[in-house]
Amino acid sequence: MALIELQNVVKVYESQAGSITAVNGVSTSFEEGEFTAIVGPSGCGKTTLLNAIGGLDRPNQGHIHIDGVNIVNLKDRDLIDFRLQHIGFVFQAYNLIPVLTALENTGFILELQGVSKKERDARAMELLEAVGLADRAHNRPNQLSGGQQQRVAVARALASRPRFILADEPTANLDSKSTETLLDIMAALNEKEKTTFIFSTHDQRVIDRARRILPLEDGQLKGL
Amino acid sequence: MPLTTRMAWRNLGRNRRRSAITAAAVAFALFFAILIRSLQLGIYGHMIHTVVGGMAGYVQVADSTYWPSQNLDVAMAEDPRWLEAVTADPDVASATPRLAGFTLLSHEKESAVAQWTGVDFAREDPGFWETRLIDGRFDNASKDGPYPVWLGRYLAESLDAQIGDTLVGMGQGYQGSMASDLMLVAGTLRLGNPELEKRVAVMRLEDAQAYSGAYGMWGTVMITPKNPGESFRAAASLSQQHPMEYASWTSWEERMPELQQAIQADSAGGIVILFILYVVISFGLLGTMIMLANERQREFTMQIALGVKRPVLAGMVFTEALLMGVLGAAIGTAMGRGVVYYFHVRPLRLLGDIAQAMEQQGWEPVLPPSMDWSITWTHGAIVIGLTLLASLWPIYVVYKSPAIHR
What we know:
The complex is a heterodimer.
Chain A: E1 4-15, E2 18-30, E3 35-39, H1 46-53, E4 61-66, E5 69-70, H2 76-86, E6 87-90, H3 102-106, H4 108-112, H5 117-130, H6 146-159, E7 164-168, H7 176-193, E8 196-201, H8 204-209, E9 212-217, E10 220-221
Helix pairs in contact in A: 5-6, 6-7
Chain B: H1 3-11, H2 16-56, E1 59-63, E2 76-77, H3 80-88, E3 92-107, E4 110-119, H4 126-132, E5 133-136, E6 147-152, H5 153-159, E7 166-172, E8 178-189, H6 194-199, E9 200-204, H7 205-212, E10 217-218, E11 220-225, H8 231-241, E12 247-251, H9 252-255, H10 257-306, H11 310-345, E13 348-349, H12 352-360, E14 366-367, H13 373-390, H14 392-400
Parallel strand pairs in B: 4-9, 6-8
Antiparallel strand pairs in B: 1-11, 1-12, 2-10, 3-4, 3-7, 3-11, 5-8, 6-9, 7-8, 13-14
Helix pairs in contact in B: 1-11, 2-10, 2-11, 2-13, 10-13, 10-14, 11-13, 11-14
């Protein structure tokens, strides 16, 4: 059984200008250990599709099964818990918590899961070492560069060993050197931790590193 | 430290200006509340202490027909054993007999109606009377010659009498006898209540008994309970434990309902002012909380996306508001109690028209604040409560926040 399975997922937004179909009947699946990029131009529905897979937004039609659980049917409260236990997120704008240090940000999800301080600090430090930021463990986000913040965000997403990580345009705000470093780190962690990565991107550098590419156009998956 | 408390504490430092404005609003609200209420309750306390504690008694024992006429003819026979038993009661701070009546006092061409009051100085708190003495002394009054008398300051003024002057007293004595004799002005008194100061003439108890012919009689016995605030209950319980035939036990609230009503009416005015203050402060607090919610909306969304449950986020915002409220309340308490303590040591004495207006209403124009901590706790709880109430807005925003930012 596939890790993630999408069946005829449709997402329509209502606006004053009328209905906008952001995702239009997407059906696909993702296996464990994938390093996949959903690609396409701005407005093609990449983020909407990623949000639907991550349980951040509910589709109007279709089913999304993760490890056999149809998350579309989960109640809001259960969906939050499902995300906490099973999904890691990396956002375009890093979204670290400003009042927590890099170490605390990395261990944030583990703390919400009730993991002991000793255990989460050890795991967070291990990941900060992996992303090359062990020496910045006690710095707050405003003391880190954009690239460093995104590396902490990746470490945070990996900390709880989620079933997969959704990364929405993770390199959009990074320079080329930071982008290369981040991709190297994610690729290495994918190899080492066997974590599934699903990106949405239109960055050619990310596309070049992806092992599977899903092109999206007008909310529909197209063949390469 | 739990995650919510740690984040709430650190969030205070993120927007220091907002945190400072919120804490300052709480601090100033509490400062003014403590100041206004302490002065108000202090004035009432001072009035009750002087009028009730000093002259009428928190609890009074008298013949059941003594009130409201205060007729000397229904005075009670002295009962020293009963008085000792009452004095020894653990709930009683003091028990002192009094004898009072009305008389006409004359000095040269001036005359005035006075209420003479016989006081057993040996049993009474000497500090109370010493602090009320403006001129003269208590301890050097002669046992021979005219009866020494200490006049309320306005009574002395209306009689144009000075210390050492001789007065003529004439009035009704005990059970048909005539009370008439000479009196020697031994001092003038500030009793803390202008109405009392216009009419009271204090005498030694034995002199009052001799003047009125009520030998071996008490008009009333004034009892001060250990807890004067519980006078009503004390009157009821003490009357059971120390019964006296034909006597009735009354608390000051029963005997002086007009004083209690005047205090309640004035107190209500103060509460209205505080209510307006709290309404204004509440809007200020709500404003800062709306700012907080707007600044954090994106962050709330992001944390919900990561898997933070809404009650956890709400708890964080609530804790943050609580910390700001407690911080402001601590500052407000320090400021309020500091100023109140200063005025407790150096009470404000009003002058001019305001003083006159107060005196006409029977209030001494002095503002001694109450040092009662319950004022601080009550209003501290109110301002912290208002802060928490204002925090309901960001909590509402947390619960309305989606998991994605559109």
